[in-house]
Design a protein that fits this description.
By secondary structure, the protein is mostly helical. It has one domain. The chain is globular. The mean pLDDT is about 85.
């Protein structure tokens, strides 16, 4: 089976990994999901943003950078750094290491599956899980 055909599996694995730490933290800290009435709009926005980020970073930017001969992981590193930097205004400098790690995981999914669908799926599921893992 070609790598691109396994994107649902790899996307689910990536989503589980991205949700694991927030889930464990959530078990030990008080918190609650947002009001249910806000879920549809919030889910639509979160999904659109996650898919747009992946289309831009692991799609267009990836394709532009991945032409560098002999440097396949340089593309992963570069798109991961950009991912971390675009999240800086929202989460601050303290979150940069975590955002970089998430970017590396999403980049690894892109490299494994040869497409942006698996990272988009993982990113979207992780962001949607944030509703309940607050």
């Amino acid at each position: 089976m070609r790598p691109g055909r396994r994107w649902p599996l790899w996307g689910a694995v990536g989503a589980a990994l991205l949700c694991l730490v927030p889930f464990v933290v959530h078990l030990h800290t008080p918190g609650a999901a947002l009001a249910t009435s806000q879920l549809p709009v919030w889910a639509a926005v979160v999904t659109a943003v996650a898919v747009a980020e992946e289309l831009l970073l692991r799609g267009a930017l990836w394709d532009a950078l991945d032409t560098w001969p002999g440097q396949p992981w340089l593309t992963v590193a570069t798109t991961s750094i950009v991912f971390a930097l675009i999240h800086w205004p929202f989460y601050g400098a303290a979150a940069l290491p975590l955002d970089l790690a998430v970017g590396l995981l999403l980049g690894a999914l892109r490299r494994l599956t040869d497409g942006w669908a698996a990272p988009a799926f993982a990113h979207t599921v992780a962001d949607l899980a944030g509703w309940w893992l607050r």
